[in-house]
Amino acid sequence: MAEPRPYQRPPQVFISFHGDELRDNFIRYLVWGLRDERVNVFIDRAEANRRDIRNISTKIEESNIAVIIFSKRYTESEMCLNEHQKMHEHVKQSNLKVIPVFYDVSISDVKNLEGEFGNHFEEMKMKYANDPLKILNWENSLSSIVERTGLTSEEHGTGLGLVMAIVRAVKSELTDSLERRKIMKGQVFVLASAAVFIFSLFVARLLCTDVKVYKAVKCLLGFLVLVGVLHQLYCLRKHPNR
C-alpha cells in the first residue's frame, strides 16, 4: 500500500515567466525574496519540461495572485501563452489577481505586439496558422492583462530593485485579500446569527404561551447570539489568517 502524500499548502502566488531566459537569475532571487516573507510560491519547473498544462492549470486555480514576468522571449513559449490565457480566464471570473511585470521590455511593445516580443508572437502565429482561435485567445488575453497597472524594469531596474518592488506588491495584494475575507466571514456570521435569532424567537413564541417565560427566553437567546458574535469578531481579530 502506497504511503499517503504529505499535505502541500496551495500556492498563494503563481509566477509565469520564460524559463530559459530568466530561471537561473532573476526568478531565483524573486522566489527567495517571496519565500523569505513567508509567501508560498509556485514556479513551473518539471511541469514546463513535460508540457503538463493540466497540473499548471490546477496551480493557477489554487493561487490567489499571478505574477506575469513579460520578457522579450515570453511569446516564444507556447507554455507561457497557454498559462497566460488560463490566468486571463480566472481574472475575468474575479478568482485571481494579476501583477504584470515588464522585464527589459516596454509596455508599448507588449501591448502592441512590437519589437522582439512581437516578432516572437508572429512566429507563433505562423506556427499555428491553422488554428486561428488559439491565436485569437492568446491575443485577447495579452491585450487584457497589459491594461492593468504593472511594474517595469525601466523604473526599478532588472535586479534587486525590481525583486523588492514585486515582493511589496504581492504582500499588499495578499493583505488586502485577507482583509476582504475577514470582513466577509464576519458579515456572514452576523447575518446567520441574526437569522437564527429571529427564527428562534418565532419558535419560542409558538411554544411559550406565558408572556414572562417568552420574555426570559428572548433575553437568553439575545444574550447567546451577542456572545457568539463577539467571540467570532475576537477570533477574526486575533487569527486573521483563519
UniProtKB/TrEMBL annotation:
<keyword id="KW-0812">Transmembrane</keyword>
<dbReference type="InterPro" id="IPR000157">
    <property type="entry name" value="TIR_dom"/>
</dbReference>
<dbReference type="InterPro" id="IPR035897">
    <property type="entry name" value="Toll_tir_struct_dom_sf"/>
</dbReference>
<dbReference type="GO" id="GO:0007165">
    <property type="term" value="P:signal transduction"/>
</dbReference>
<feature type="transmembrane region" description="Helical">
    <location>
        <begin position="213"/>
        <end position="236"/>
    </location>
</feature>
<feature type="domain" description="TIR">
    <location>
        <begin position="9"/>
        <end position="146"/>
    </location>
</feature>
<protein>
    <submittedName>
        <fullName>Toll-Interleukin-Resistance domain-containing protein</fullName>
    </submittedName>
</protein>
<dbReference type="Pfam" id="PF01582">
    <property type="entry name" value="TIR"/>
</dbReference>
<keyword id="KW-0520">NAD</keyword>
<keyword id="KW-0472">Membrane</keyword>
<keyword id="KW-1133">Transmembrane helix</keyword>
<feature type="transmembrane region" description="Helical">
    <location>
        <begin position="188"/>
        <end position="207"/>
    </location>
</feature>
